[in-house]
Amino acid sequence: MDANPRTKSGFDHRQARRAGTAAFVGTAIEWYDFYIYATAAALVFGPLFFPESDRMVGIAAAFATYAVGFFVRPLGAIIFGHIGDRFGRRPSLVITLLAMGLATVLVGVLPTYDQVGVWAPVLLLALRVVQGLAVGGEWGGAVLMAVEHAPEKHKTFYGGFPQLGNSAGALAATGIFSVLSVQGDDFLIDGGWRIPFLLSMPLILLGFWVRYRLEESPVFDQSRDDQPQQLPLTYALKTNWHPMLLGIGMAGVSTGGYYIVTSFATAYATDPAVGLSETLVLNALAAAAFVEFVTTLAIAWLGDRYGRKRVVMIGVLGSGALIVPQFLTLGGGSVWAIFAAFIAMRLAMTATYAPVATVMAQMFRPQARYTSMSLSNGIAAAIWGGLGPVTATWLYVQTGTIWSVIVLFLGMVAVSAVCLHLAPQHIDPAPDAGERRDVNDESAELGV
Predict the structure, then answer these.
(1) 3-state helix vs strand vs coil in the chain, percent to 5
(2) How far apart are CA 24 and CA 100, in angstroms?
């Protein structure tokens, strides 16, 4: 690399690295908070907060509370998208981090149903709403800080840093629950489940320090005078409705499918009808999360090299091919086959996820981009992520066969593939450079 890290296009690699690192740290912490809730919902929230049900119905109720966090994401996208488009990406990111952290720590000290009755699930629901609002504004801002600092030919790589935070958060969440589960089911139920939530406090302080020191996005600074006078939400709905719809459909596998092969798979595999131990499943998930963690940036780099949409498409179709062996292995495979199935599926999921942040960001022009991107992702999370585990659980309970869940997953694959194919891509002007040019052919955009 040259001594001067600023490229001919005017973007600065040094600032891009700092922005990418800050996006990774903050996003890892927020997704850690999010995933410990998901894991607890699959393992302990049913009997602790919804004890008057049989096991699978209790899990479905816990997943329904979990889903509320997805349903309020669009509102979080509107609130924090407005802040991010009007006042800057950085203040929005600081607020979301603090809100998520406070809600997570409070979950760790909640009384259970046996202690306060119906107030336990009510309080759990309220804190889940706060988590959902924060995540609704978090992801878009973190992605934009990383992508908007990056040179055009390296945007997908730097856009992989906030995606890397997802796998780091998942790895930490599943890893700590895996360690705790070694103590036995009674240990988790009797209070061990609180430990991962309380550990969030020092992580939040670290994330706040990192994000508060970050410089504002150069694309936002340059386009500040071009921001629409009307509300960002109004502008987004009037101008960006078509790519927003494509973004919602495009996220079927990377969002909804992801939770089916992680959260739902955990509940399915540990159901007495299947009979796998919690420790085995959590260890397999931890191994898969580690593989995702070490491959995310490499796969994002492939997006710059061969085309980001092309890499995502390979992941979408690959996950569709792997879903049958994934669940059939859980129903009767060896330990090594179960580990291999989880890892192979996670690699395919990483291909759908690592480059998709940049794909989504570049579907919109800078004007109201934060709102447009966050709202599209938030609605996708509500539809695909929020309803995915609940629908999968309902289908499994009603039909008694995992094939109904497999068909649901393949439907997500079909919708994602079509919307991804139609998704436009735009190129940001360099700082103090000329007008933006639009491209629909990604190979032309990347010069390959």
Answers:
(1) 80, 0, 20
(2) 16
